[in-house]
Write a structure and sequence with these properties.
By secondary structure, the protein is mainly beta. It has three helices and 21 strands.
């Protein structure tokens, strides 16, 4: 296994979406670790305070090549990463070993026409929010005494799919803009592979977010981290799954919360059938009495997100968990 460093530069990032036509930013082997850098706020650099900017980020904002702009989304992603021997039908296991804000500043934005209450909050509002990286808190509103613990995670973890270019806004079978705040340090996410090499990208750092991400944004933050990527040929998944230190997580995305919930439930039932050996009926019952379903996000149009959480502590110790 090798250790790599992947800095965010004009030739190692891409904007707005996922594409199988992008040149890889890095080529690795299964099991390799990567110290990775990401930036956020591509469209806001001209309104940002000094603490939000670095020379490297400004270089990206001014000189990103046209071929690295692949979708209509606002997200600047680092990647894609090509993993040798990853083939369609395999699964990528991404282990999130370290996640931390790289700059003492993030932002939150209300965007007209977006969010959970677009008819009530119709005016744009951009707030840059200082981060106390030593105390690991943010105060909002300013001077209010309301202290928000920093719980950093990457909102986007996704792979490219075949013969299509996808916006970075909606999540899907490829992962993408999942915005699940449970995916903090120590978590693992499992993504199906659709194209040779997987072509994994990461970004959309969040320092703090509530379930729902209701006004479109969290505390959006340039984020660094360390990840390990493994090719899993022993798994067969058709939809993303995740695992934290305490829970198994299923995901569902749909045009309505009902549709997203139904898919998250079906994915959890399928996992219980395949990994725990339950019948579909028993898995359905267990979901009713032991699985907690949360609203992941309601703003990544056109898809809402729901995730189900099953405590690993209730499972027999003899079961191999993913």
């Amino acid at each position: 296994m090798s250790k790599h460093i992947l800095k965010a530069r004009c030739h190692t990032v891409h904007l707005g979406g996922f594409s199988h036509k992008l040149e890889p930013a890095l080529i690795i082997n299964s099991g390799d670790r990567i110290d990775i850098e990401t930036y956020t706020g591509y469209y806001l650099y001209d309104r940002a305070p000094r603490e939000f900017l670095t020379p490297e980020f400004l270089e990206i904002c001014h000189n990103l090549p046209a071929e690295r702009k692949v979708g209509v989304g606002p997200h600047l992603l680092t990647g894609p990463i090509y993993i040798n021997d990853a083939k369609p039908g395999d699964v990528l296991e991404i282990i999130l070993e370290n996640i931390y804000p790289s700059l003492p500043m993030g932002f939150n934005s209300i965007r007209p026409g977006w969010g959970a209450l677009p008819e009530q909050f119709t005016e744009p509002k951009l707030n840059f929010i200082p981060l106390d990286l030593e105390k690991k808190i943010a105060e909002f509103p300013p001077n209010s005494g309301i202290k928000i613990p920093l719980q950093p995670f990457f909102g986007i973890l996704g792979v490219a799919t075949e013969n299509t270019q996808r916006s970075s806004i909606p999540p899907g079978i490829y992962g993408g803009n999942i915005d699940c705040r449970e995916l903090q340090v120590g978590s693992r996410i499992f993504l199906p592979v659709f194209v040779p090499g997987g072509l994994f990208s990461i970004g959309d750092g969040h320092s703090a977010q509530g379930d729902g991400e209701i006004n479109v944004t969290a505390i959006e933050t340039s984020m660094n981290g360390t990840i390990q990527i493994k090719v899993r040929k022993d798994l067969q998944l058709i939809f993303p799954m995740a695992e934290t230190s305490t829970d198994i997580i299923s995901f569902g995305f749909g045009n309505t919360l009902d549709a997203a919930f139904e898919l998250a439930l079906k994915q959890m039932i399928s996992w219980l059938e395949n990994f725990v050996g339950l019948s579909a009926e028993d898995a359905y019952i267990l979901c009713s009495i032991a699985v907690n379903f949360h609203i992941t996000q309601v703003v990544n149009n056109p898809h809402k997100g729901v995730h189900g959480m099953l405590r690993k502590s209730i499972l027999p110790t003899t079961i191999s968990i993913i």
